[in-house]
Amino acid sequence: MASVDKLGSGRWQARYRDPDGKQRKRTFPRKSDADRFLTTIEHNILTGAYVDPAAGRRTFREYGEGWRTGQPHRPGTAVAVEQHLRVHAYPVLGSRPIAGIRPSEVQAWATGLPIAPSTTRTVFNTIKAVFKAAVRDRVIAHNPCDGVALPKVPPRKVEPLTVEQVETIVASAPDEYRALLVLAAGTGLRAGELFGLQVRHVDFLRRLLTVEQQVQPRTGHGVHVCPPKTQSSYRTIPLPQVVVDALAGHLRVYPAGAEDFIFTAPGGGPVVRTSFMQSTWTPAARAVGLPKGSGLHSMRHFYASALIRGGLSVRVVSERLGHANAAMTLNVYAHLWPDDEDRTRQA
Predict the structure, then answer these.
(1) Pair 51, 143: CB distance under 8 Å
(2) How far apart are CA 315 and CA 317, in angstroms?
(3) What tens digit of pLDDT does each residue of 80-111 get?
(4) Which of 63, 157, 219, 270 lies 20 to 30 angstroms, CA to CA, from 132?
(5) Which residues of 100-129 are buried (b: 16+ CB within 10 A; e: fewer)?
(6) Considering the domain 57-136 in this protein, what is its CATH number?
(7) Superfamily of domain 163-336
C-alpha cells in the first residue's frame, strides 16, 4: 500500500511499491509535495509509464553493452553494432546517465557525425534501438531519438557494369576465383552467399542453384557459416549455361566433395571477405576504372540489370535477388525498367 507518513524530523515520507514489488520511498518538506508525488507515481504505474529512478542513473555505455550482448544478432550485424556504439556513440554519450540524455543532445550528436549521410542513418538506428529498449525496461520515460532530424541521403542511381567490364574483371582475377566472379555476375548472389556455396548446392543437371547458407565474419577474427540474411534470401536460382560451364571447369581444376566449399581461401576453409576484396576484387575493379569503394555488389547490380533488360517482372527480379519485397527492388532499380509511355497510350 502507498502511504505518506510524518517523520520525527518534521519531513514527510512517501512510500510505495514499484511494478516489481520493491518498496520505494522519498521524503519531502511538505505533506502536499509528498501527496502530489505519490499521486503521480500511482498514475504512472497504472498507465505503464513508471520509470525506475535508480535504473536511469546507469550510463549509456553500461546499458548499451548489456543490450548489445543480449541481442540475437547475426555475426555480421554483431560486428557492425559493436562498431557503431564503440566508435560513434560511446565517445560522446557513453559516460552520461541514460535518463539524462536529452533529444537536443542526440540531435547535436547525429548532426556532428563525420560520416556519410547513409552511414549516419545506420548508426543512428543502432542508438535508437538502445533507447527503445530502455523505454521498454522502464529505465527512461521517452526515447530521445524521437523527432531527431537526420541528413538527407542524396539520390543515387545504380549504373550497372557493361558486359565488357564484367569480362575484364573476370580476366583480371586469379584463376581460382574467376568462376566465382562469373557466378556473381550470373546469379546476383551476395558476397556471403558466394563464399558459403558448397558443391551440394548446385544441381548441374537441372541447372539450379540453392541458397541456404552464407559466410560472415566473426567479431575479432575468422568467419562463421550461418543462415542467409533474411527468410526471403532462401531461394533457388536458375543458372545460365555460362555459369554452369564456369563452375564445372573450376571443379575440374579444383576438385571438391559434396560438402566442401566450391571456393576456398589460400590456406583452406571458406573465403574471408576482407582478404578477397584486397587481393582479388580491388585490383580487378581498378582494371576497369571503377570508383574507389565499389564493391562486389557491382556484380549483383549487373545481374539485376540483365534480368530487367530481359523483360522480367519486378516480382521475379525481387525473388532472384532474395529481397524481402518488391518495394526494395524498385527503390534500387526502378530507373532501369523501360519507359512504358507508348504502352500506356495503347492501353
Answers:
(1) no
(2) 6
(3) 999 999 999 999 999 999 999 999 999 999 99
(4) 219
(5) ebeeeebbebbeebeeeeeebeebbebbbb
(6) 1.10.150.130
(7) Intergrase catalytic core (1.10.443.10)
